[in-house]
Amino acid sequence: MNKFNLLSYLKTMILAMFFAMVFTSCTGGGSSPSGLTEKVYNAVIKKDWNTAINYFNLDEKEKPFFLALLKRTYERNPIVKCEIVSEQITEDGKKAEVTVKNYYKDGTDQTTSNCCVKTDSGWKMEVNCR
User: Fold this and answer.
1) CA nearest neighbour of 115 among 103, 94, 43
2) Can you give the pTM of this predicted structure?
3) Rounded distance, CA 98 to CA 115, Å?
């Protein structure tokens, strides 16, 4: 994969994750994948970008790139409300998919999925759903 295709792929993945996580009215949090998703949304609502990005399963070297992409995407059409639709955890309990319905500032809505992975420090958002 050349550099342009990789960047395009990463951008697409982050955009999908962003639209599933940003600027919502979700509240709460906890030790579940849905709770993690709500924590990410709440951090972005407060424009607490560093907290939001720390909920991702990323290497320290990757964080600045994804942080910049998250901010840029937010500026386009912020999510103003979200609803957690469902949470599915794999049998082994190590991965999960959280489906979220997002409502955007321009009046549109979209249902998207977030991938989560259980790490030693708890649930994290996974950028690359494998």
Assistant:
1) 94
2) 0.72
3) 7
Average pLDDT of the segment spanning 108-112 = 92
Residue 7 confidence (pLDDT):
55
Integer-rounded Cα Rg, in Å, for the chain is: 14
Write down the residue that tokens 């649930």 correspond to: 123
pLDDT tens per residue across span 83-93: 899 999 999 99
Task: Identify the domain containing residue 60 by its residue range.
Answer: 3-126
**How many structural domains is the chain composed of?**
1
pLDDT at 41 over 60: yes
As to burial, measured by CB atoms within 10 angstroms (0-12 exposed, 13-18 middle, 19+ buried), residue 11 is middle
- The C-alpha angle with vertex 83 and arms to 20 and 7, in degrees rounded to 5, equals 0
Q: Where are the beta strands (DSSP E) in the chain?
A: 79-89, 95-104, 109-119, 122-126
In eight-state DSSP terms, residue 56 is B
Residue 60 sits in a domain whose CATH number is: 3.10.450.50
